[in-house]
Fold this sequence. Notes:
Blueprint (H helix, E strand, L loop, with lengths): L1 H7 L4 H11 L4 H8 L3 H8 L7 H11 L26 E4 L2 E5 L9 E8 L15 E8 L2 E5 L2 E5 L4 E5 L4 E5 L5 E8 L25
Antiparallel strand pairs: 1-2, 2-3, 3-9, 4-7, 4-9, 5-6, 5-8
Amino acid sequence: MDEIEAGLSTVDVGGRLRQMRQERDMSMRALARASGLSTNALSMIERGRTSPSVSTLYKISEALGVPITAFFRLEPPRQEVVFRKANERRRVPFQRGVWEGLGGESFIGGLEPFLLTLEVGASSGRFGMLHSGHEFVLCLDGMLEYEVEETRYMLEPGDSLLFAAQLRHRWRNAGKTPVRVVIALTCFERGESPTEFHFVPQLEDADSEDE
């Protein structure tokens, strides 16, 4: 949890919370009911008077109907040419892994490549995901299991997979060592953020810190 909490400290969680709540025309009281948190706790977070724990953020994101990564989301200026030094990548820690942007978050075109580092036991969840566009997967290290509809593919270093992303899919680290994998998403619908489906922490993995 330390990495996730470190990531939270670098963003304006209160400002993002207020923005998303207001976009949904949701009162503080309504959000409190939906999340199980007190209105005072939510108010303190919005005003920047306190930082939410990871478990609190899970509850808020679920009540708002957004992935937890929405609190990290940035909208940088889009460019026709994007160059990234390895030490300049945007990094977002998540449950049992780290997401690293490879420039797609700043690219004007419809292509989003990213690097995932997955600890032993990491997975995208039980229910799978689907979104528009196409998905390309290249395993760099470790053993990665990808399930597309009813078929499972075991990717080892150098193996790749390409499929239509509207097919339900999910992944997990199937080995005993960390996995490093490059995933590239393309041809997705304008306004969609399919990248976020791939590193949304699972609620059942959250810490149980009391509020």
